[in-house]
Structure formats: structure tokens, C-alpha cells
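User: Okay, second chain of the day. Same drill as before: sequence in, C-alpha cells out.
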Amino acid sequence: MVEKKKIDKRMEAKTVVQLKHMFDMELRRIKEDNKIDIIMFVGIDGRIFASIIPPMLDPVQFRFLNLLKGNLPSLCSQLKGDKLKVSIQQYELGTVVISGIGANCFLASIFSKPLSLDTMGPTIHNLINGSTVLNHLFEQRPISPEDLEGYDQAVIDELSKLTRQLFVEKFDETREYKRNMELLKFLKQKIGSVVGIGAVDEIVTVSMNELGNSPSFMKEKDWLKFVELVIESHIKARSGDIVADECRRTWVPEVERKLKSFV
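Assistant: Same drill. C-alpha cells below.
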């Protein structure tokens, strides 16, 4: 029995849509893990690039949101030219934490409750690490060992987790997945035209198991191996050498053309 391939189910953002989705996932994680009421990703020119604001604000949340918006021009002016790491603004009813994201952006986190400086250490550490992750994504840097050198292990782990989560949520939108589904449909039709529709799923399943692969994750060379396996092990046994040779002569060039059309 062929050992099933171990598939590394990670995916780096290759499009603007995927990058934004990855960024939004991290922004949500930072908010939820640290019990932040309102979170905003802001440029030092005052533009709000992303935010998570509850649809219904209580009076304290509303007050602090307006306070932060009103202070943005002054805050941005102070940050220009200085690479802020973290700033804590404590008020009677709440706390605002500003954490730097590179030289041109920052993260504003609003807690609609007063927080003690004595107990804020873990939260501040989390916000600094989260800001580092956001900066890495914002700069569109690869997630390779070389590009992760110098980061805290928590930052490395989070970026790695995001690539797995992006794979789970967005892989079926990739060109590779759509190509594989189109090829699978095409080959099922071809197999069915020779052996009958009823035998198609069994032949496909057995052949994929022999390859140790899954249709979703097939590479170009895998599809050519699959075609040869189906013809040699199943078409020939059911329909004879002449039919098998004809299938090989016509199917292989068609599959190769389809593969090239997706490059």
C-alpha cells in the first residue's frame, strides 16, 4: 500500500484579497484574545485602514471612540518621525493603548474599563507581538524562516498559524484548486465514457489511494501519473489493450493542454 503523502496545509497570501483576509483574521484575534472593545489600525496620516467596532456601542465605548477620533490629528503629529512602540493612556472609565506598527502605522486599542498597570503586562506584550505580526503582513513580507529571524517565538507561531488558517478558509478559491476540480470533472467524464458512469467513483477513489494523494492537492506530474494508472490498471482490465491504447493516445495530450492552460 502506498503511503499517503503528507500535505503541508499552509498558504501564504498571493493576492490582495487573501492578504486582507489574513490581516483581518489577525486583527480579530488580537481583539478577542485581549478582550479589547474597539480596535483600529491607523496610518500616521490619520487614515483608518481597518477597524473592528461593535454595531451597538454603550455610552463609555461611544465616548472613548469619539475621544480617540478627536485626538487622531494630535496623535499622528506626535508619531511622525518617531517609531512608537507602545503608549498607555489611562482614564477614569477606560484605557487606550497605542502600539506602533512599523514607522507609518499604529494600532489603537480601546478598553472601556480602567486597567491596572500592575496587571497589564501580559496584555501589553500581546499587543506588541500582535502589532509585529500586522506589520509583517502590511509590508507583504514572505513567511519564510529567513524573514522570521529575530522575532519572538509567539510572533513566529502566530504567522505560521495564520498560514494554516488561510489555507483552511481560502484554499478552495485558489487557481490550483479550481484547476484540479476542472481536471477531475474532465477525467471522470472520460472514464465514464469507457467503463460506464457507475464505475467512475470507484476507479477514481482506488487510483487516488494508490497514488497516496487527493484530487484537491494534485500537482501536474500527479495528474499524468493518475491518467496512466487509470488506463493501465482499470481501462485495460475492463476494455482491453486497444481501447486502453486509444485512451492513452487521446487523454494524455488533452490533460497536458489543460494543465498548460492554467499556467
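The first helix runs from residue 16 to 33.

User: Thanks, on to the next one.
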